[in-house]
Design a protein that fits this description.
The complex is a heterotetramer, with 2 copies of chain A (77 residues) and 2 copies of chain B (132 residues). Chain A is 25% helix and 27% strand. Chain A has one domain (2-71): Roll (Ubiquitin-like (UB roll)). Chain A is an alpha+beta fold and 77 residues long. The longest helix of chain A has 12 residues, at 28-39. Chain B has one domain (3-128): Molybdopterin biosynthesis MoaE subunit (Aldehyde Oxidoreductase, domain 3, Alpha-Beta Complex), CATH 3.90.1170. Chain B has helices spanning 12-17, 52-69, 100-117; strands at residues 3-6, 26-33, 37-38, 41-42, 45-50, 74-80, 82-85, 89-97, 120-123. In chain B, a hairpin with a 2-residue loop joins strand 3 (37-38) and strand 4. Chain B starts with a strand and ends in a 9-residue tail after the last strand. The chains are: A alpha+beta (77), B alpha+beta (132). Chain B binds chain C through residues 12-13, 16, 20-38, 86-87, 96, 98, 100, 103-104, 107-108, 111, and chain C through 12-13, 16, 20-38, 86-87, 96, 98, 100, 103-104, 107-108, 111.
């Protein structure tokens, strides 16, 4: 299972901040596609992704136990 | 412990204390506070949310980037999360260097990078137009 | 009382408190401290001397110059006089503005002007070469 | 009488920080010349001068009661 973390507007949109998703062997892009279909999450293609707390691109392949965080545009400071 | 995400109010002096050294002639701090008016709209309060473990890693990365560019610089950054009222402090960046120009430059670099790569989000739940 | 010459140690927070406001989103501070090594020579302590009434006037003038260039800026400056040990604070400059770039620029302007027009002198009575 | 204030190296050189000098109607340049002769003060031509706490140039005419301060290169901050 892949641990998925949602923040900011994505968290509000889905109404939860963590999910467990079957995704061993998937790419980040495939996971985004699956989540779009399963949860009708808007704008997922344009957000940054972190895998295990480091930014990762859409080609990154996921393994069971990975933590994937979707990072909408940041606004700290 | 120079890079922190804090639920408690930030004490500026504590952040500064982390970078003062015998070889530092200059310390700059940047203090980001919650402003009441933005583009004619009134903020009542803000809620800051962070992906905490990654945010700390990214603050540490900014510190490493500063060290590469300004090897004599010492940096400390604390960012607050949770509900902040007007004038509350959201972030304190302290940088010490032997000479003052570097302290300004490195400090400014830090805030620009925070706004690019640190997973922290500001939610403005209390914004209203001029007439409410 | 935003512009002071002080015989007592400077409390950074007190200088910052003078410039925090509901419309300030950014506060920068510059803290000048006594550095141990300068060009390979060791400082033991410094004595700062000022022509106090004129120094205060000139600090006020710097505040006016900042207000002309950055109308939304609030500035406070305290400079210490007397004997200062290594890492003691000689000067604190705090500037608040709605947006951060101005806070950095105006602060930097202040320290450059202090070094040009404010009658304060640093006497290095304890400087020695590397071998004493 | 003109009140003269000395600071930093000038104060050390002369061994005092205040003087009273007859100088009503003199220019700043003339006062500097007189002090150079009377006290063998070096480098007075190159320092800045303040009259009544404002920077003044060498042509400024002095009156009884004025306070003249000689300001060696400043080194605050």
């Amino acid at each position: 299972m892949i641990n998925v973390l949602l923040f900011a507007q994505l968290k509000d949109e889905l109404g939860k901040e963590t999910l467990s998703i079957e995704g061993n062997g998937m790419s980040v892009a495939q996971l985004k596609g699956k989540m779009k279909v399963d949860f009708q999450l808007e704008g997922l293609e344009t957000v940054m992704t972190a895998v295990n707390e480091e930014f990762a691109d859409d080609d990154t392949i996921l393994s069971d136990g990975d933590t994937v965080a979707f990072i909408p545009p940041v606004s700290g400071g | 412990m120079n890079y922190n995400i804090s639920k408690e109010p930030i004490v500026i002096q504590e952040v500064i204390d982390k970078v003062v050294s015998r070889n530092a002639g200059a310390v700059t701090t940047f203090i980001g506070t919650v402003r009441e008016m933005t583009k004619g709209k009134k903020t009542l309060f803000l809620i800051y949310e962070a992906y905490v473990p990654m945010a700390i890693k990214k603050l540490e990365q900014i510190g490493s980037e500063i060290k590469e560019r300004w090897p004599d610089a010492e940096t400390a950054i604390t960012h607050r999360v949770g509900k902040l009222e007007i004038t509350d402090i959201a972030v304190v960046i302290a940088v010490s260097t032997p000479h003052r120009n570097d302290a300004y430059e490195a400090n400014r670099y830090a805030i620009e990078r925070i706004k690019e790569i640190v997973p922290i989000w500001k939610k403005n739940t209390g914004k209203m137009g001029r007439h409410g």
